[in-house]
Design goal:
The protein has 2 domains: 5-146, no CATH class; 162-347, Intergrase catalytic core (hpI Integrase, Chain A, Orthogonal Bundle), CATH 1.10.443. 55% of the residues lie in helices and 7% in strands. The protein has helices spanning 5-21, 28-35, 41-61, 75-80, 83-94, 116-135, 162-174, 180-203, 207-211, 241-254, 278-292, 300-315, 318-325, 330-336, 338-347; strands at 95-101, 107-113, 218-219, 224-228, 234-238. The strands form 2 sheets. A 3-stranded antiparallel β-sheet has the order 3-4-5, with no helix packed on it. Strands 1-2 form a two-stranded antiparallel ribbon. The chain is globular.
Amino acid sequence: MALKYHEQVDRDNTLKLREFLSELPSFCTTFFRGIEPRTSSRTRIAYAYDLKVFFQFLKEQNPLYKDKAFNDFSLEDIDNLTVLDLEDYMEYLKYRKRTLTDANGNQITTDVINSRTAIKRKVASLRTFYNYFYRNQLIKNNPAALIVMPKLKDKEIVRLDTNEVADFLDEVETGDSLTKRQQLFHDKTELRDTAMMTLMLGTGIRVSECVGLNISDVDFNNDGIHIHRKGGKEVTIYFGDEVESILKEYINYRKHLIAEDGSEDALFLSLRNKRINVRSVEYMVKKYAKTVTPLKHITPHKLRSTYGTNLYKETGDIYLVADVLGHNDVNTTKKHYAAIEDERRRSARNKVHLRTDD
């Protein structure tokens, strides 16, 4: 029996994590085993990568560990580090050299320049790492808890305006502004692309949730799709008439496609008749969006923000928006839609009259 999409992703990430662990100190295995019940496989991969960078820093920048192999690091080494050591790490993250090996076995050195957001994420990974061992009384010191995290500037929320949504979907359907080469492929993918973009704009689902859909996940009796959310939660998201119409048309077409092994149940297929992947959808969104809004960097996540904005404008219910988008913390939702909330507060200024004109 073929694995579901999220099961396949978890399996692949588990195998990838094992590769990472073979390059990290042995005590890291204890950490990853401990956080496994409450983290996704993707999160654990990110932690593993960040920890590899941290131990590389210790070898390159700290004279005490210059000659140590990764596997020779101990919990005692971690316990002996100070806040100043970790602040040096934050400075190191701003700019560093990275050496990679290409397909021919040649080593290539590249520059890595991290943004404040990337630095904050890596430091947050290190905090989680330290907190685990400190909480379980395996180390006596927790310098990571004393680090002052980088301050981040609030980013402007980028989304499609109402007229841009219509123009975007028109472009997906017609492909009029695409290059001649792109139009050749568009003739083969127009229905699939329109169905995917309409679904994402009409439900606010994540790109990973979209590519993970199976044909059986679509329920026309209740106008809903069954998706696997971050954290393992299974939910039903409901769609409107526009989404229903294009999905029915696409599924009738999809039933005549012969999928490759392992992708028989996939709703959306690539031109090679395999389950379409996240990167392909990211390229798809970029391809159509740049013809409509060249000054905006539109990604699948921006389509999600667009849906959230429209839903909030229509309902004014921030808790409903948080629930539909799958945010665990409503404060996350409030942060994203604070500007709209401010507009709503402004619109209320003349709603209450203190005196009635006679």
